[in-house]
Amino acid sequence: MAASVSPSRVFSRPPIEQSGAAVEIGGIPIFLQTADADFRRLIEDRYAGFINPSAKPSCWLAVHLEPPSGRTAEDVQVSRNGSVWRIERGDFCAEFDARSRRGWVRQSPNPYSLDGLMRIIHSLVLAEEGGFLVHAASGVRNGRAFVFAGVSGAGKTTLSRLAPPDATLLTDEISYVRRTGNGYHAYGTPFAGELARLGTNLEAPLEALYFLEKGPDNRIVPVGDSDAAHALIRNILFFAHDPELVKRVFEAAIEFVSRVPVARFVFTPDERAWELIR
Amino acid sequence: MNEKYIARSKAVAARALGGEMMIMSAADSTLFSLSDVATVIWEAADGCTPLSEIVDKHVCAEFDVPADVAYRDAQQLVEDLAVRGILSISSQPVAETERPAPEAP
Hints:
The complex is a heterodimer. Chain A folds into two domains: 15-128, no CATH class; 132-276, Rossmann fold. Chain A is built from six helices and 15 strands.
């Protein structure tokens, strides 16, 4: 005789594959599937402000937890076989199918591995549509977004700390740029730098990109398109030496500098720096 | 004189920007900006036009430079670009199927 099952018990719990959390960064919700309640809580804490339970996911990632291996987060290796990306780092191993936008990751229950993978997946998804992640702080003032790019030490965190009350910080480390019609939008990210503070989950039309440079005064210096493209490409996060991806990132950078004002922002580290950002 | 035929590599992305030709190697992500003369040679590198003809018709016609100097400099340039994988050099015209696609305007 078949065992009887109460309908209320069947429907009171979501199927295991639906258990998890949708993390929406840059308007792209990634559903992280995990049957582990503790890890789900860890995700919700780590990405607080970016969890969107009502979002219709555009990507799915099954998280398979394993005990900590003791391996360190060595250089990431990203390779492609057809539409499937294989992503390996000392502390995690993952695959992501760019066509179905589904994938999996095998990692220990820590937020850092997932964070690293999320950056890579977002950079791959953005490359398909002419956007990118860039080493840059960004903020919104008067409804418009400003992106401040630079390598470590250029002043991203310094400028972020100096932001006036009427400016909203999107990130102090990794900026999220998407193509939107004829322009671009910048989005807040939870990818924090030295400030160790999650960005605000907000988007705004992108007004300008500045390359930061500390100096004796505050001034904005125009940059030629070619120099702007060189500097931007140096700061874009891209992880795979895949010919098709390289071409897309190149095209995205060229398109960006031909449409968005780009300049050098020489600033002296005090609150007057933001007087030029309006 | 042994003729040289040069063809743009398919493993690069190229775009004109602000009057400069920018080229990115898909193999190692290296980014190059070509000078005016190098851009003229790059754009004419169709795999079937001899380098000497490219120099005569394009370089000497557009820039004020003696033919022998232009050809010597062009040889050096294409060898440099070939080492970087931006174009290929052949002693024969490149077969139709191996030729690079025309540049987008």
